[in-house]
Amino acid sequence: MQIRSPGVWACVALAVAAVLFALLATNPYHTSLVVWILTNAVLAAALRFVLQIGELNIATAAFFGVGAYTTAICAVLFGWPFWLTLLLAPLLAALLSALFGWVTLRTKGPYFLLVSFAFTEVARLIYTKINAIGGNSGLVGMFPPMAIDAHYPAFAAALLAAALFALYGVERSDLGRLFKAIKNNDAIPRSVGLNVVFLKVLCVVISSAAVGLAGGLHAYTNNVIAPSDFSYFVAILALAYVKIGGEGHPLGPVVGAAVLTLVGQRVAGISAWENIFYGAVIVVALLAFPGGLVGLAARSRGLVRRDAR
Amino acid sequence: MELFVQLLANTLQIGSVYVLFALGLTLIFGVMKIVNFAHGAFFTAAALVVTSVMPFAMDTLGLSLPASYLLAAIAAFAVVLCIGAVVFNFGFQYVLKDLNGSFILSIGLLLVLNGIYLAIYGGAPRSVPQVLPDTINIFGAKLTEQRLALVIISIVVTGGLYLLIERTRLGLALRAVAQDQEAAMLQGMPYRRVALYGFLIGAALAACAGVLMAPINAVTTVSGDEFLIKAFIIIIIGGLGSVAGAIVGGLFIGMVESVGGYFFDPSTATLTMFILVIVFLLVRPQGILGNAD
Amino acid sequence: MNGDASTIVGGEVILRAERLERRFGGLTAVSDFSFELRQGEILGLIGPNGAGKSTTFNLISGFIHPSDGRLFVMGRDVTGASATTISRMGLVRTFQHDSLLSEMSVVDNILVGASHRQRGHEKRLEKVREVAAMTGLADHLDMIAGNLPHGLQRMLSIAIALAAEPRILCLDEPLTGLQGAEVVAALELFERLRTAHGLTILLVEHNMRAVMRACDRLIVLNYGRLLAEGPPEAVSRNEAVIEAYLGRKR
Fold first, then answer.
1. Nearest to A286 among B29, B33, B101 (CB)
2. 3-class DSSP state of A7
């Protein structure tokens, strides 16, 4: 389903508003909520980004973890400067995801799904086994430098919003068209000189760089990270955000992340009901509202373009 | 020698459960072309039902231990088949052959089911007494009769499944639909019904594993999920949709786990499995016994 | 026929298949199949259903690999090379079924075709306009490919291939479902591509009249083997060919 864009400038305005809010709000709970929502939005948008080539990439959670651990290790264990620790997060995530993608994206459909799932679990296991990086307890002590500490939420919000726009920009470019073509009928790109495996890997690399950055920022936001923060469940939540918000539109993951993060606050802490809530939301969204919230809104405004059938 | 036999016994025991689990998963994939992330929930449901029916049967109905277990097993199968029929009818039948859609659905279902289990049973582990608690000695290796029974029953069930698939009309339908669904439909096969049967058989296999494991390990609401990742590894190695592959893969992973767990520790064993999967994918993307395209 | 120095029919050999064989389990789809394609010619590959034409097409374009035999494109051995490699060398093919990016617009379809050769969005768009004009799609650029009428869909699949600037254009049943005037237009396009643009064309087709008119040479496949080869007139009078096609309309 394609929906005519409601306006990139409206989104920029929204992003600026969010950053300003993070800058000016006095309640630390509110500012951290903004960062939290944007982090979830990036996770969801990155997952949706790889859905462009038709693959469900559970390893989104793994590379979120790679970014976080890279930053944390460089900051706490090596004592490197703030900007460097943040720069390395997306770089390392991109690099590792290139390797991961090169091996796994040659395989057909369901294998990638299962392997990305296994990879995420194993990454988590590896973190727990290495005592030098904290084992099960993880790492603590990632604090932004004094100079920006007070305004850190706004800083993080700005970078996260930038990541969202970057993903959007690639999606709308010729490269994004190639990704869609691969999903639609990958024989066509192959027949005109395009290297489909390379393009698929590139798609995963871009997505992983975005979540890697989010991971690095997350380390400083939370000041503590642990292996359990990066289980496959993170990817499943991201999937829920995408499904609720709507898969067909770049705003979908953002809307879904915002809605579910806020609503999820209500059910937080009651394990059984939290499970049932998220699960029911996913099932209902999938079966009854495949276009998600954005799809519903667009349909009610008559903005949906007819599909080719 | 004694160590070897002990490891072999462990391999068989661990492997048997994995085989049953993976068989269901691979069968469902073969027929419906979907990955059922909620497969563990069938296992868990069966095991949990056993932990509540067995004490009820023994204390309230005054049945003997074996009879209670049997009753509990029947109840477990009934519950799992009901759950299976419901989730198929209201969910999976709408996402047949849609890999991502069905995966998403199964995640949602898993969360809902886990939540329900948690709400009903709480988080504490539950156990039931072993029906055959005596230990026997085979070539120097110690094995409880319960575990031996598990292996034997698994072999029987696997054999039964093989017969079903190779020798019955339902099995023929399952194989036809797995190989070429459109051709099968052109021959008049009711795909949705065949898919339902395949799905229920898969669920029953997971339930069987759950029933067999309940007396051996304490059951929690996430017991089934712990098997899931290994089952995924098994069906990748064995080949998605391949019954023989699930058997070979299940035993192989059982071996890696028992040997790795003995010489190292469980998580190292899991790591090894993953590295094996990577290697396999590099060399043979379709699994040991999957079909090359 | 407008002559152009670079399009001498019967020029150098730009595609050569040497004893190609392809087995699928117990079935041999193509066996001991050799042929040459020369610069500037329009070669027709014909044969009854099941003769192995699709398999041959997949073999020469790198979509499947031969069990035996060798393949040379522009003199280079490309046996076992991928579809990506072979298409980058200038051999571009279309598809009989599933031949488009049906959920994307006409512009986007052709853009994908142009993506490898042209660098930068502007250059690619230029190519799109150029190719769309050649194939009669200039007025339909924003339509979703799957919504196009059948004749234009066939043209679009050729347009995608043309956008990749091929030297060898392999068309898989391009005239299927086309009516009279559309067929004429298509054949005129092929001739123009050959004379004005220096392309060489390999054509698989069932439309016998079109094949007789358009092709310089025919190759007949039957049961995966070469049955006959030569100018259309000669081939159409070949007894073995007539027998293989028993019942075909003249």
1. B101
2. coil
Closest listed residue to residue B208, CA positions, set B105, B76, B54, B31: B76
Domains of chain C: which residue ranges? 1-90+180-250, 101-165
Helix (H, G, I), strand (E, B) or coil at C13: strand
**B93 and chain A in contact, CB less than 8 A:** no
Q: Which residue in chain A has the smallest CA separation from B102?
A: A286
* Residues found in chain B: 293
Look at residue C168 in the predicted model and tell me its pLDDT. 96
Q: What is the CATH number of domain C1-90+180-250?
A: 3.40.50.300
For tokens 């849609």, what's the residue? B98
Whether the Cβ atoms of residue C219 and residue C43 lie closer than 8 Å to each other: yes
Is B281 touching A (CB cutoff 8 A)? yes
Considering the entire predicted model, what is its pTM? Answer: 0.88
Q: ipTM surpassing 0.85, yes or no? A: yes
Residue type, B119: A
Judge whether B219 and B44 are in contact, CB under 8 Å. Answer: yes
What is the full per-residue pLDDT of chain C (250 aa) written as tens digits?
Answer: 334 434 445 688 999 999 999 998 888 899 999 999 999 999 999 988 878 898 999 999 999 999 999 999 998 999 999 999 999 999 999 999 889 999 999 999 999 999 999 999 999 999 999 999 999 999 999 999 999 999 999 999 999 999 999 999 999 999 988 888 999 999 999 999 999 999 999 999 988 889 999 999 999 998 889 989 999 988 888 888 888 876 554 4
Tokens of C170: 């392999």
Domain layout of chain B by residue ranges: 2-221
Quote the radius of gyration of chain B (alpha carbons, Å). 19
Q: What share of chain A is helix, strand, coil (3-state, %, to 5)?
A: 75, 0, 20
Burial of A302: CB neighbours in 10 Å, binned 0-12, 13-18, 19+:
exposed
| pLDDT tens per residue, range C127-164 | 999 999 999 999 999 999 999 999 999 999 999 999 99
Token pair of B38 as six digits: 């909620």
Do residues A105 and B267 lie in contact, with contact meaning Cβ atoms separated by under 8 Å?
Answer: no
From chain C, the residues in CB contact with A192 under 8 A are 87, 92, 112-113, 115-116, 160-161, 163-164
DSSP one-letter code for C101:
-
List chain B residues with CB under 8 Å of A125: 267, 270-271
**Mind giving me the DSSP string for A214-255?**
HHHHHHHHHSEE-GGGGSHHHHHHHHHHHHHH-TTSTTHHHH
Question: Within 13 Å, how many C-alpha atoms sit on residue C222's CB side?
Answer: 12
Chain centroid, CA A45 distance in Å: 5
Residue B234 in contact with residue B22, Cβ under 8 Å?
yes
The alpha-carbon gap from A305 to the nearest alpha carbon of chain C, in Å, equals 10
The strand ranges marked E within chain C are 13-24, 27-38, 42-46, 68-73, 76-77, 91-93, 168-172, 200-204, 217-222, 225-230
- Residue-averaged pLDDT of chain A: 88
Contact A272 B278 (CB under 8 A): no
**Secondary structure (DSSP) of A76-145:** IIS---HHHHHHHHHHHHHHHHHHHHHHHTTS-HHHHHHHHHHHHHHHHHHHHH-GGGTGGG-EE-----
C173's CB contacts (< 8 A; 6+ apart) are C96, C204, C205, C206
Could you give the C-alpha distances from C4 to C31, C84, C194, in angstroms and in order? 37, 30, 9
Structure tokens at B100: 């991502």
